[in-house]
């Protein structure tokens, strides 16, 4: 319970401080399922975020159970509690908990006339007087004044009256928007948090802030994005969807053949279709990569080995281009040609050599000859690796994807600690033991028509 209350307080308080700092320029003027505030948010909202603030909910219980697996659990929570008090001057038991309802929703309004983002928070407090007291303390801490209004049974909180008016005067709600309904219909019920963004409105808002917005390589226009965070029995999952319109059709999902060739024990793997129209590869890589491609890291002897496997149109030409690209990159880092004794990270990189082999239409390039031999040999492979199978199963990764990423955290983290020590640095004492419960990280995407499903799962055991 202690973990859930402190983390819940941190989330709510941070959101309130953000409200105080955004959209404060002058202008005119019962909870149910998570995201119930969508019935109040305007239909043209650029984004909508819902956070579970009921610290007795099953989701917060699951978070607490996961945190209990870490040795530094109690120390971490104590520091979080101290930070909450130091940064905000608030006390959980007396200031925050009595003011909480079952959820906090944040509405990001369309671009304001001044080009600044406007946020509106929506809550249904258990004690209205406690909420008022909490907001007064936040006002005093931030130096800005939050304004509130009652809208359809919700308390709306904003940094300006104009933002409140945009919510209270909305002619239609987000909950009735077909776009919002489409975007959130596939998300898991009862998440810890969920987010929705209207593609057109969100891109316009970011553009008004001077943010560079990458466009899809397919030439498609972003319609919406939605995602949810769910705490499961053995990990934490982010699951979401992206819908676009127009542009080239995405490549079909594929079953990886390279998992049956990559050696067992790989620490990290990124597998993708290099011919996919969804990828925007640099021109230099376009001549090197082709077909199903994998970049993976294996432990090796001493330094870890990095291996690239791909199927370019001209493997021999690709090998030459790859050699040139790697040599240029290392030269740019100043790791060669000096004649001096290398040291630290520069010394490590300076000792890197690239080896490659071409077998049929397959180019295998690696930083060690042994890595190539292991790939081409008949030893145990990733497809039968117990950690890989357990991690991808826990993530629910299907047999066919449009690409996946896998990291063996339990074996990779000790290796990282060793590499850090090699460059004369040190990690905090006990860090490895405290991170030991982290087992795997698996992410993948699948495309169907104009919609992409993506997921990432951190397995904790």
Description:
The protein is α+β, with helices and mostly antiparallel strands and 461 residues long. The protein has two domains: 2-245, no CATH class; 254-460, no CATH class. It is built from 15 helices and 18 strands. It has helices at residues 2-21, 58-67, 73-88, 92-96, 128-142, 161-168, 178-184, 199-208, 283-286, 315-332, 344-350, 369-376, 386-394, 409-422, 431-435; strands spanning 47-52, 103-108, 119-123, 147-151, 154-158, 193-198, 221-232, 235-245, 254-255, 268-273, 292-298, 305-310, 355-359, 362-366, 400-401, 404-408, 438-448, 451-460. The strands form two sheets. The chain has a 16-stranded antiparallel β-sheet with strand order 4-5-3-2-1-6-7-8-18-17-16-10-11-12-14-13, sandwiched between helices. A hairpin with a 2-residue loop joins β13 and β14 (362-366). α1 crosses α2, α1 (2-21) runs parallel beside α3 and α1 packs across α5 (128-142). The protein is globular, with a radius of gyration of 25 Å. The two termini are 20 Å apart. The model is unreliable at 1-32 and 335-349 (pLDDT under 50).
